[in-house]
Amino acid sequence: MRLKELRTQKGISVPKLAEMSGISRRTIQGIEKRGDCMVSNAIKLAEALNISLDYLCKAQEG
């Protein structure tokens, strides 16, 4: 999952993404650390970042 990469590219902080997605900061931090999450959370994050679920879930490049 490319959450941290995409979030930082868009200049969005973890607290801001939490506000945009309705997912707690702690949960977002855990997702970024582990690289996986529940599908329901991935959908909310993709919608908040205005990207497709497929794009969010692709493996990080580099």
Question: What this model shows, in words?
Answer:
This protein is mainly alpha-helical and 62 residues long. Helices cover 66% and strands 0% of the residues. The protein is built from 5 helices and no strands. The chain has helices at 3-9, 14-21, 25-34, 39-49, 53-57. It is globular, with a radius of gyration of 10 Å.
Key phrases:
62 residues; mainly alpha; 5 helices; globular
What is this entry, summarized?
The chain is built from five helices and no strands. The chain is mainly alpha-helical.
Secondary structure layout plus pairing:
Elements: H1 3-9, H2 14-21, H3 25-34, H4 39-49, H5 53-57
The secondary-structure element order is HHHHH
Q: Roughly how much helix do the residues carry, as a percent range?
A: 55-70%
Shape: globular
**Taking all residues together, what is the mean pLDDT?**
94
**What structural category characterises the helix and strand content?**
mainly alpha
**Approximate strand percentage:** under 5%
Number of strands: 0
